[in-house]
UniProtKB/TrEMBL annotation:
UniProt similarity note: Belongs to the krueppel C2H2-type zinc-finger protein family.
GO molecular function: DNA binding; zinc ion binding
CC terms in the record's Gene Ontology section: nucleolus; nucleoplasm
Native source species: Oncorhynchus kisutch (Coho salmon)
Compartments where located: Nucleus, Nucleolus; Nucleus, Nucleoplasm
Residue ranges occupied by any C2H2-type domain in the UniProt entry: 417-444, 445-472, 473-500, 501-528, 529-555
Gene Ontology terms describing biological process: regulation of gene expression
Predominant location: nucleus
Region (Disordered) residue spans: 139-162
Keywords: DNA-binding, Isopeptide bond, Metal-binding, Nucleus, Repeat, Transcription, Transcription regulation, Ubl conjugation, Zinc, Zinc-finger
Alphabetized PROSITE patterns for the sequence: ZINC_FINGER_C2H2_1, ZINC_FINGER_C2H2_2
Gene name of this polypeptide: LOC109901251
Compositionally biased spans, kind Basic and acidic residues: 148-162
Protein name from the UniProt record: Wilms tumor protein homolog
DNA sequence: CTGGGGACGGGGCCC
DNA sequence: GGGGCCCCGTCCCCA
């Protein structure tokens, strides 16, 4: 009986214990679940905040860049490549690769020329943008952040700073501080890559790569600065000939990938730069017909732009070019002389070793990256043409190259050189270079008297007759003189009565095509110009102007 | 409206 | 291959 009671007792104890245990487990599970839910909620909120901050920062920087360019260089050429963020006359961000390209000019470059001077404010424009990673802590203290530095000397961007501070307050430790390079010495031993480059602007140091190719021996100023830790390809024609103090490079990974790449050390890097192997490959060239635009370096934009797509926060950068306007007298060597058509891709190919470093993250604006030489070599444009993203969009752009029998336009001469934009064929390299300025808007020849720019030297020379008053073409009938032969020829129709342009509607004839064109509007009834005073419509602006002067001059 | 000139962009050819 | 020139077309402006 006693045994029976004992068994019952133990059974009851066991069941009670079981109930208690189950209750405890349930409680623990509940607590864990609750905490986990809270934790996840907090995590997702933090991530969301970080994303929003990052996006906001990018937008702000984009806006600032665009406004700055628009304000400072109304005539500048603007290349916008929404994705690849290329800006003319400055480095080209070809996806993961940072290829800083500038014209390999000769005389137009002067080392003593001012760097990136804002023409209005007189301040230089070193841009420093720091984009914080979303999960810098997760990546670790040594983790890199995507860095774009955008800093204007003497000009603090409060919003920018605020955003950065906000980012820090949100738990994102900024691995790289915004450094006022103008006022703050850099005692750190680990400056970011962009800081390195910025210092290259302000210091006397430059990272220059001499171009030694025999076929381009006339180009002594091909300066390259760029890919850190990347030695030139063995057959590269570029030599690092000036390299100063050792630099430590702090590169950064794309913050947007921080979570996914926490364990991907290949994307997080801190590269100690060995000065001996530091051929910063900023190809100091901007001409579209050369360098990374160049067909000969097609890999720059055909391959390089692809590998990090989606991983790089690209802040479109509009080139503020011509900070030191290129001045080219008629007898000066044009900047396009002596550039390399050759192994541009050689030094680009060295990216392989750096795929995980610079390629990923650096999106420094050109101003920050130019050295004095590259600054002054920025080509220019006088008509504010806006470039098109197609420039980078395909390997088709890499077509300007010798293609045997590749002529596309009828000519007895073999046109081996194809325009990378329109595929038109030209017989020699220079011709296609000049032609491509049609597409690029590059105007490297600057009139010293009126700052007008021209794409061709002969056009500049012709233009300068405007200033000199030279009119070498005189009409034998009336002694009237003209500055252009074509003007004389056209004028002579006055004497000959020739009217080669006839209206198909009324058979009126005109000596000038423009006059016929204007006349056609009479038939078309097209009157797009309306007088704001009386509502009368005119087919030509000049008609409207004349009308307003006559009828409404008192208004 | 028409006539005409100034200036410029671009292609092609020649030296 | 590079520079210069010729030529054509076009835009803009003015009388």
């Amino acid at each position: 009986m006693a045994n029976c009671d004992g068994v019952v007792f133990h059974t009851q104890i066991a069941s009670i214990m079981e109930v208690l245990a189950n209750a405890a487990v349930t409680e623990i599970c509940k607590l864990v679940d609750d905490d986990y839910a809270v934790f996840r909620l907090e995590m997702s909120q933090s991530q969301k905040e970080n994303r929003a901050l990052r996006r906001k920062l990018q937008l702000l920087e984009l806006k600032v860049s665009r406004e700055r360019v628009l304000a400072s260089r109304p005539n500048s050429v603007k290349i916008f490549d929404g994705y690849r963020g290329m800006a003319r006359g400055e480095e080209h961000f070809t996806g993961g690769h940072r290829n800083f390209v500038k014209p390999a000019g000769l005389k137009p470059w002067r080392d003593d020329q001012p760097i990136a001077i804002n023409e209005e404010t007189g301040t230089s424009t070193q841009h420093v943008i720091v984009i914080e990673p979303a999960d810098a802590e997760a990546v670790g203290p040594g983790a890199s952040s995507l860095v774009k530095q955008e800093k204007t000397e003497g000009e603090e961007d409060p919003q920018h700073s605020r955003d950065i501070q906000t980012g820090a307050a949100a738990g994102v430790a900024p691995p790289v501080a915004v450094v006022d390079l103008a006022t703050t010495p850099q005692p750190r031993t680990r400056p970011s890559i962009t800081e390195v480059i910025l210092k290259s602007e302000t210091d006397t140091e430059t990272h220059r790569l001499l171009h030694t190719g025999s076929d381009h021996g006339s180009d002594p100023e091909r300066l390259l600065l760029g890919r850190l830790g990347c030695s030139p390809a063995p057959d590269s024609k570029y030599l690092l000939y000036e390299n100063s103090s050792p630099r430590t490079v702090h590169s950064h990974q794309d913050s947007s990938d921080a979570l996914e790449t926490v364990n991907d050390l290949s994307r997080s890097y801190m590269t100690e730069m060995d000065p001996g192997i530091m051929p910063l490959v900023l190809e100091t060239q901007t001409d579209l017909s050369r360098g990374d635009w160049n067909p000969y370096s097609s890999r720059v934009y055909s391959e390089g732009c692809l590998d990090k797509k989606g991983e790089v926060i690209v802040i479109d950068e509009v080139k503020v070019e011509g900070d030191a306007p290129l001045t080219c007298n008629a007898d000066e060597t044009p900047i396009w002389k002596g550039y390399s058509q050759g192994n541009t891709s050689d030094f680009l190919d060295c990216r392989d070793g750096l795929e995980t470093s610079l390629d990923v993250a650096i999106h420094s604006p050109s101003h920050a990256l130019r050295d004095p030489v590259s600054t002054s070599m920025a080509p220019s444009d006088s008509h504010g043409r806006v470039f098109f993203d197609q420039v980078f969009n395909s390997n088709d752009r890499a077509r300007v190259q010798t293609q045997g029998g590749g002529a596309t336009s009828g000519n007895s001469k073999e046109k081996r050189f194809l325009c990378m934009f329109c595929n038109k064929g030209f017989s020699c390299l220079q011709k296609v270079e000049i032609h491509q300025r049609v597409h690029t808007g590059e105007n490297p020849f600057n009139c010293t008297q009126c700052e007008k720019r021209f794409s061709r030297q002969d056009h500049l020379k012709r233009h300068q007759r405007v200033h000199t008053g030279e009119k070498p073409f005189s009409c034998p009938q009336c002694e009237k003189r003209f500055s252009q032969a074509g003007d004389l020829k056209r004028h002579q129709r006055v004497h000959t009565g020739e009217k080669p342009f006839s209206c198909t509607q009324c058979h009126m004839r005109f000596a000038l095509a423009g006059n016929l064109k204007m006349h056609l509007k009479v038939h078309e009834g097209e009157r797009p110009f309306t007088c704001m005073h009386c509502g009368k419509k005119f087919s030509e602006r000049s008609y409207l102007r004349t009308h307003q002067q006559k009828k409404h001059s008192s208004v």
